[in-house]
Queue: 4 jobs
Job 1
Amino acid sequence: MLARKVLGIFPAGLGYRYASTVNLKEKSVGVIGLGMVGNALVKNLQRTGYNVTTILDVDPAKYKDFSCGTAQTPLEVAKAVDVIFTALPMPQHVKAVFEGDDGLLAGLAEGKVWIDHSTTDYEQTEDMNEEVIKQGAKMLEAPVTGGLEALKKGQMTVFMAGEKPIADEMMPMMEDIYANVIYTGKMGTALIPKVLSNMLTCVQNLAMGEVFMVGKRAGVDMRTMFDCIRASSGNSFVWETGGPMLMQGTYDPSFSIALQCKDNRLGYQIATKHRVPIEILGHAMQAYNRTMYAYGDDAPCYSSPRMLEEALGVDLRCEGFENWKYSIQNIDGSSVIRHHGIDIKRTKVVENADDLLG
């Protein structure tokens, strides 16, 4: 009845989306894995009105932030809810949650949907999807990208892959909790751009450290260097986010270098399978391994420039970035960084993109 009324009030597309969202908000949702991604996911789901009823993590201390029910096993979560999200650090963790008598698969049944936010092995995901289908359930892979600060605000991009009808069904929910949702096609195709994007950030981070170091040794003010590159063809997401973290000396503590190196290995496996030489990405992979071995698995993911700082005895700190934070604005499908906590000149927003053509 509500759906018919909505469709009678709103234009066809908007009415259908509103009705679909209402329907999804009536479903029960469970989340397995309450690390940085899972914690923010639960809060974004609750903030946008979705019914998160059950959560699970290996560390019960993480339950304190939430009032919803808890489970003892992945099986309990799968049986209790209609939609299950997982957000796990490594392929082996996804495998452990999925398999066994108390595993996720054993609790899946017709009508249930599993959405995996983990950045994992895409071939493993394809195999798991076949098992999910045999149970009569549906699966979507949905790795997220954009950084923790963006995730907290629901400003992340998510790549989503799987059967198109189920992707379309879940799209209103995903668009409610993320700023940009890109459907990539069949199962496995979302994880490929995700891990390759993460590998690309390694190349950019290594180059960024060298650029800052050359500039500082040549006598260029660090803030001036930051602003010049930010306004030029050399700019990138990493420059605008990793640069301030380098100047803070934090090197992005929200994501460990062990997880970054895991993504690098996944990207290397994909390139090897498809017989593509990756000389630049491969060099970055080894440089990151070296950094991880030097500073440990929990070192921040942008720590590689620190090795250059220590080798040359020159730090790349810059006053004025102590309180810097960022947010992401989705403009025409591109992630545009907005800076906060630093002195910056705000520009007038262009309402009509065609005006830029002159």
Job 2
Amino acid sequence: PEFWEGGDREGPGTMADKWSDQIRACGLFFISIVVLMIIPLVYHCFVFLTALPLWETQPASCVILLICFHTLFLLLLMSYWKTIFTDAGGVPYELDEAWISELNLANRFGLEAEVSERVSEVSETSPLTVQSAERKLDGRQRYCRKCRKFKPDRAHHCKYCGRCVLKMDHHCPWVNNCIGFRNYKFFMLFCSYATMTSFYVALTLFTGFVNLLVQRRTIVFGWVEFEYLVVFGLMAGVSVVLTGFTGFHFMLLLKNMSTIEHVEKRDPTKKDQVNPFDLGRERNWGQIFGENPWLWFIPVGETRGDGVHWETNEAVNASAAQDV
């Protein structure tokens, strides 16, 4: 059948492959800009030009500024590191083999239409026994022609990474990685700490500017003042952009919805569909950040679940009805 043979599969050397290579190269370039230029520039301006000069006249202010800055800064770097080097999660090998074996068997005996309906004698956690909440319009299981794999709920193919990603949100060039099931918490923390750090630096520098104006001190414009202006403008712009971006992602998180799922809701045929994965704000939050509040805002730990099997609100409502 067409969905198995992959009639639209793009071979090597196509425009899509070249574009994917360019995106990955841009990702490394963006990371280099952040690590080699922006981070050192901001650190030098805040620590050496802003905080340390206060040590002789205002030591308490100097210590407070340094402690607050380094706390946010270290959490930001840890989150950034984890977002870059934590794999977003691919379709498990066992799942892939199970589906392909089932498909080959069905294809051999001409039972393609019954693949999604048959239940084999396997364990309850097998993908062959799990009812998917997301299916094609004809009722068949979602299938990726490029990977030649059946896709679990919420999984999507990333053309830049060249594979299907579990609960894919988007591919972020600033971390040169997909944002998905296993690194979404770290991505959220990275955005949050980047927002807070940039706002903190911009506010501190702005306060310094205001003090100069109030004291009516003569300002001699040189390289130091130029660095102040560059860092202030950069941090002010980043804080404004990231505030909206981070707020948008927290809104999606509380709805248990990825960016791709949010965009798909714009489809007139899907806008009235209820999100089957919305379990309520508290459970949606716990699904990403875990149950331990002490670890919510620290970039450690692993996401609950396997990224393949997803609890739906229908199951939750059914369980609640039985309890009543």
Job 3
Amino acid sequence: MFTARAAGRVALAVGQRGLAPRAGVAWGMVTISHRTMSSKSAKTPLSPPGRVARGSVLSPCDQFALKRDALVDRGGQRAVSSSAKSSSAKDVLSAGCCGGADEDDEAPPCAQPLPFDKIAIIGAGVMSNVIVSRIVNCASQKCPAISIYDVNHPQAAAMAELYDGVSAEESSADALSGASLIILAVKPQNINSVAKQILAAGPRVSQDAVLLSVLAGTRTETIRNSLGLSKIVRAMPNTPCAIGLGMTVWLSTPDVNETELNGVTTLFGYMGDAVRVMDESFIDMATALTGSGPAFVYLAMEAMVDAGVHMGFPRDTAVRLVQNTFHGTGAYAIHSPRHLVQLRNDITSPGGTTATALFTLEKGGLRATLTAAVFAAHKKAQHLGNNRKKLPDSMASGLSDDSF
């Protein structure tokens, strides 16, 4: 049977739909790639048939955990660990895919050690929680010490309580002291107050530390001028990083050395796919496309669920149908070498139901509205960073500064 830890991880990774992978599940459909914008984007190969648990697409880290935790006793060869805990929130979120593994366990592809002795995280919001969970879940046997600070100390303390080896500090100076990686995950408008705290910490902040910023619209030049640090990585992850299936677009300043670059690349690998860019304008674009993108998908899912209920499906059934439709369609699009238009044409029979529905969507302006939404998010990202590139009038029509 599955251990409590494995069962909890399945619930976390596949949305509590009861789609439990087989014991001993092998590596699956999603592979991690790190490529620059200038490189050719090779398609991820299809996995051999039968190697992926039906109904679940898990990151390599999470699949490793399932493979380890779901081992069964086969003739005394190996039994499930007797130290399995109950599936409380702490057990589910803090169950590392490498921590606690036996020496003969195979390491997952993304379980490389981080070259940082201590990580300080300023801000205890959603993205901070995502990053901490992936570090704890995927870091190999040596997991860095992690200190969290937030002006809302109870929130930081509640987050630290979820994970072993993570502490919430009473002051930013205590969190920053001795950190070789500083992760800045606060609201962009709070950058000045955070800068004052970092500067006030003085010598307790290493000038050789790498600062990883996930602030929307905040350019590396602004961070350097505000904080006085030269080793800066700016990244835009998204919330699917929480299960190792996210998308991160990032860049670094020239001062970040090769070892440190390898470290942040490994960290992004814990969270899913990552694309390194060389021009900072791409980060603002990614903020609109992949940072905000999941919200567009959720809205479309909501609408389809409501349509299913209106037609007569029970809500829980409609949710399951829509979730798996998006789940499978996304995975199929990733692994198919064919163009999206060809995939759409495959299910658009002349005069059929899909053709009729697509005509209705086009007539309602779905494509133009969605495109305008992405452009609006892009303009907002530029607005946040005072980087106001003029959009073509055809794109920016109706998007005045008063909208923000």
Job 4
Amino acid sequence: VDFIGRVVKREVPNEQIGAMLMAIYLMGMSAPETVALTTALQNSGEVLSWPQFPGVVVDKHSTGGVGDKISLPLAPALAACGLKVPMISGRGLGHTGGTLDKLESIPGLSVSVDVQRIDAILESVGCVIAGQTETLVPGDRILYAIRDVTSTVDSIPLITASIVSKKVAEGLNSLILDVKVGKAAFMRTMESALALGTSMVNAGNGSGVRTLGIVTRMDHPIGYMIGNALEVAESVYCLQGKGPKDLDDLVIAQGGHLLAINGTAPSAEAGKEMIRKVLGDGSALAKFEQMVAAQGASAETAKKLCQDPMSVLAVAPFKTELLAPSSGYVTDIDALALAKTTCVMGAGRLKTTDVIDFAVGLQLHVVVGDAVKEGQSWVTVHHTKPLADEHKAAISGAVTIGNAQPAVQPRIVGLIEGSANDNAVFHPH
């Protein structure tokens, strides 16, 4: 603990920090050691507390996916159920889009929200999605920069402590972790996803926050939209009760389980029913509109966004339809290939200084399992520069069409459950 305190005071040279990180990377850490590191990082800066909101402060974290816009409808849905959601989120790097980048595609909206303003928005609206403030978990920023240059990023205890410390520093009662697994996930195998998920659930529970992991498949994109403005639009459709089924299912499941572990709902099924209700009756959409306005967008922009999102969001000047090369069934849509290509086209960043083009993205017209006819449009590419041949080829190569209809696997693989006293265990769905 003292080590992290000294790191933040700049009393430890980078070489020594690097040696410590390499030791953790090579030797690993026990669950209690990981909790100790998490707590030390959490306490390296300001820790938020909400005495005025006893027992109702919650959040979620996703390990990152393609088309993963779940936070945008989930935060207002939870607020509509009476919870407070101080979501401190991240930016996208590489193929996974960042929630902050998506939100910033809304004209006028700011994700730079100080703690006093977070407080006020939680009071009046109930949810806020903001960037990490300078005062929260400064120890993690220092460690992360050195992990990057020492190639120690890929360590489960270090990943766990980095993610969970930032969440518990929000002063949460309960936390749900969406642990993605598959070709387009950070963790591609079930074994690695469960190792990370179990470690994070243990660290959350060990830090005094009720924490549940939900393992979800990330081979194919979530919903139909990939790209910043397009994903905001699809989030609004979800809040209007018109979202794609897989997105709806994930929002309802994560919200329902979070309501249950927090004790707001008597069971996960009852919690899911609460989320279904607020998505269906417009109350979650109203919370989203209030949040967008509270974070700096004009009242008119917020209102129009929630009625007809593409009337206020950036629209690409070019749209190109790509056609199915044959008739049959969609057996695969390679989310990783699509995300990498849209990233290079401007929808993401390869280095932190890159500027994002909010309008760039993909609008799928099919999902895995759908029947297609030869020559039918399967995707619309939204682009601001002429579509390069290699980008067109990469996107075209991401769809696989076969003769037999494939069995579509459910998104949710299972739950990782534990408590402050018990190690987390995976329960298949």
